[in-house]
Amino acid sequence: MRKEKDLAIKLRKTGKSYGQISKQLTVPKSTLSYWLSNMELSEKNKEKIYLRAKRKSCEILIRINKNQTHLALERAKKIRKEAQLEVFKLAKNRLFLVGASLYWAEGYKKGAAGSKWKGVDFANSDPELIKIMMDFFRKICQVSDEKIKMQIMLHSNNNISKSIDYWSELTKIKKGNFIKTFVFPKKISHKKKKIENLTHGTVHIRINDVKLFFRIIGWIDGLKSNI
To answer: Do residues 34 and 98 share a domain?
Structure first.
């Protein structure tokens, strides 16, 4: 046993970790801790052990993240496939057809193509269209008002308070669910000039729900395959 202890001390002085020494000598870490607890290490070896432990932790985190990403992708595929199969039954509902088609045309879909944010986002300035989509999210998607967030996009000549009042009344979403209004700077490109004429700007309906996002994408998949 004395021989193993001397060798353990020697290895520790070279900057080996308890794990490395335990593996090499087949000595339990608890025993090593007892043997080496009072042993002083040089700053160089302390740094060596710290950097090795840090590198190992990073490797473990990378493996965990890769595994979680893989599981998330598999869950997304399953949700999309199941939603795609729902289309034949749901297609009998006109609100479903209109809402899913409008989202296909105007809704946020980049999350299904790899973009980091994977949530529901539909934007438009047409009040009647917004009312249809609110019905779609409430009745077809079964989303509660508490989960719906709204954001208005305005130009500097628009009145923020009046716009929030307008969209809150139209959508029946309380003002506390409106996140900070985005105001375009005065100097805008000619391509955005037409937005200045929108009295109440453009409103975004946002629902931070990954499962619902992929379900809607699955419905769009189903519409594509059945047209």
So the answer is: no
Owning domain of residue 87:
72-226
> Do 21 and 112 sit in the same domain of this protein?
no
The string of DSSP codes covering 17-64 is -HHHHHHHHT--HHHHHHHHTT----HHHHHHHHHHHHHHHHHHHHHH
Q: What residue type is assigned to position 185 of the chain?
A: P
**For residue range 141-174, what is the model confidence (pLDDT) as tens digits?**
999 999 999 999 998 888 999 999 999 999 999 9
Phi first, then psi, for residue 26 (nearest 5°) are 55, 45
Report helix, strand or coil for 188: coil
**67 part of a folded domain:** no
Q: Are 214 and 76 in contact (CB under 8 A)?
A: yes
Residues in the chain: 227
**Number of structural domains the chain divides into:** 2
Residues ≥6 apart with Cβ < 8 Å to 149? 177, 178, 179, 206, 207, 208
pLDDT tens track for 107-144: 999 999 888 899 999 999 999 999 999 999 999 999 99
